[in-house]
Amino acid sequence: MIDLYYWPTPNGHKITLFLEESALAYRIVPVNIGKGEQFRPEFLAISPNNRMPAIVDHAPACGGAPLAVFESGAILWYLGKKTGQLIPADPRGEVETLQWLFWQVAGLGPMAGQNHHFGQYAPEKIPYAIERYVRETNRL
């Protein structure tokens, strides 16, 4: 069984999609980031950077104690290795998959997040910031 520490964010959705596709048994442990629950000590023990999502695998393939994993890209890679699904077995396919995963978590994801933040939530509309993140999101 996998515990998914989750709030409905784009990064959280990535993990639920993988878990559903792979048919792994999991339960959602809600962490309400609007109420600051990601700063609670029990969550920080699992995700020291206080970010969504995180998992605890109670039956890791390596055996032993439950294994905590944080950061969406690391979780996806871990689950892919655990299940043997969605990561090609051949080295070229594996590298291509890893490149696209890194592209998403280090490129598109952060730029889209900044695009959304400056366009929707920033208390002051800063045209330069909005234009920069819209342009970069479109480029990616």
From TrEMBL:
GO terms for molecular function: transferase activity. InterPro entries: Glutathione-S-Trfase_C_sf (IPR036282), Glutathione_S-Trfase (IPR040079), Glutathione_S-Trfase_N (IPR004045), Thioredoxin-like_sf (IPR036249). PANTHER family: DISULFIDE-BOND OXIDOREDUCTASE YFCG, GLUTATHIONE S-TRANSFERASE-RELATED. Residues 1-87 form the GST N-terminal domain. Keywords: Transferase. This is Glutathione S-transferase domain-containing protein. Transmembrane segments: none annotated.
